[in-house]
Amino acid sequence: MDKDKHAIWTKKIQKIRCTVSNTTQLLTRLHADIKERSERWPFGEKSFQKAATITSEWYHLFLLAISHQPQCIEKSYREMLDECRIYYKNNHYMLKQIDDFAQNCNSYSAIREYTRDSFLYRITNRALRTQNMEIIKKFSPFITDLHSQLHENYREYYNSKIYPMRAVYRGQLLSVDELKYLRSVCESTNPVIKLTTFGSASLDPEVAMNFVAFSNDRIPCLFEIIITDEYKIEESDALDVTQTFANISSLSNIPDEQEVLFSLLTHFRVKDIGDLFDHPYGRWVPITLELINAKTRHYAYTQLHFIQCIKEEKNPQHYADILNVLKVMTEDEVRFNNMNWKKWWSISAKQWGTDAARDQPLLLTLYQCFRNDKYYSRKAIEMHKDILRSVPSVESNQSSFSYLFKEFKIWQEIPTKCIALYEQYLKQFCTSNTMETVECLYYAGQTYERICDKERALECYETVLALDESNKFQKNIKIQQQIKKLKKPSKTDRMVNNECTAV
Prior knowledge:
- By secondary structure, the protein is an alpha+beta fold.
- Helices cover 55% and strands 11% of the residues.
- The strands form two sheets. Strands 1, 2, 3, 5, 8, 9 and 10 form a seven-stranded mixed β-sheet that branches. Strands 4-7-6 form a three-stranded antiparallel β-sheet.
- The termini are far apart.
């Protein structure tokens, strides 16, 4: 058969996928199309995000929490399998696969199950690409097991000091918009992307090219992913591994693919994106990525401690609440967009690794970073109150104003802890017109302002004016200025009032 002759007229017919001259080529192309359509090798725009944007890092914290589920959580695939049964409710073949998996699954076979031609790899990456946190939470046990097994294989590879993987390859069809997005990242000042799904590649470029099928509406691309010397040097100084990849050929159901699997949140530098060019094997756009170490980037120190705290979490309810905070903040678009994320990350960076952060739950650390969100500040205050009631030095001195006020001033760097001490112990003393009382109320008012609680700040300032009518302690003028400032409508208040007027 004259393959070239038939290729000319078949290109005009969208339903014809390719032109082949023998059954071997047909089966090869069919296998590649099934793989590409079944989404085991996803690499579209929903599979990665530009790294180092302040808001995207928040979603990445959620993925970190999902992929490092603490041991205190009872491991169960039940919710995930229930979700799978709903998704495949009209597919009896898939339902049987789900039932078989439910009877035979275990934590040590995650990679083998993922590489089988089954429902699991299809729906896991599909769930991750939705970025629907409620759905992704249901897949957390399997995501944790898969990431953990990849991490174990990576550590064996790294500790062997033998680095045979210099480059891996993947073929992929990208839409015009996806390729345009990658080009924009490549041309930016920080050309780094981060995987938000599991991503596959091959040690064999020919295997990768088998995944580049003909398409009228998408562009064939060949990714070359370089495992750089820079990455290895940085890894040698690492305290922990925050990203993972492994050659899974020996564990895969299809070892001939020589598959290398990258886990969630692996970082790549977009080094180069070429133009579409002709090659004896076809036409494609060459794209070069470089694997880089996550800890060379901004926020990495925070994320490293976040992972450590998640793994060490002992309270299942705290873990559930952490996921809920991450989910609620993301889904509330107005609240999310109004949040001063630069300030949040700045506050969090100052806390990780401190004695205070080490001695308190991760959930509390998250809450107290929300200094411009009164709801979460109040959550932090109530948690601090519970902790203070179990601190012997505080409980034994609860009748000593001087001791408590001294502690109050020491803890100024943690405003929610100061307020917890004030409300739980100090406030009861603030009824007499003394210098210590006025100072305590004044400092409490300032601290309430720092966590955006105007009402309680005003209450403190007005109490001072009522106690010290004669201005004995020379604070009244300054306090009156603060009251005037607090009573002035903020920009947010004016926006709300305007909306109400319009309605």
